[in-house]
Amino acid sequence: MRQWIEGLIVSSVALLIPIKAVIITVGIVVFADLFTGVLAAIKRKEKITSAGLSRTVAKMAVYQTVIITGYLIQVNLIANMLPLVNIVGSVIGLVEFKSLIENANFILGDDLFREVIKKLASKNDTEENKKQDPPKSSS
User: Fold this and answer.
1) Domain definitions of the chain by residue range
2) What is the pTM of this model?
3) Which phi and psi angles does 138 have, rounded to 5°?
4) Which is nearest to 64 in space by CA: 34, 124, 20?
5) Residue numbers of the chain with a pLDDT score lower than 70
6) CA 57 to chain CA centroid, nearest Å
């Protein structure tokens, strides 16, 4: 029995090696969202509960199940005609990334993207330069 279980575990791990990066990336993004969510809740002075934290565990289980199922369908049923794992992983990643940005905006008290754009803006791109008339072409 022990040998059978060990063989099943080894086979399962070998089957999932091609999607290891997607599984790990989704896990990191979910835990990053959890971390920023906890920080945002602390800032809002909300109580951190086990029920709230258990939603992350359920979310992780569902996400990983969807990724693995998508991979099995991609490889075994549609013969890699559609990169289902990449599509599913991207959708999950974007949903979690949006939540992460919302949490960061609340924690920082400002719009994160607007601040990044301000920092990246050229020093020549000031209000005075915007108000000047564009140079006239000589004809």
Assistant:
1) 2-124
2) 0.75
3) -90, 130
4) 20
5) 122-139
6) 16
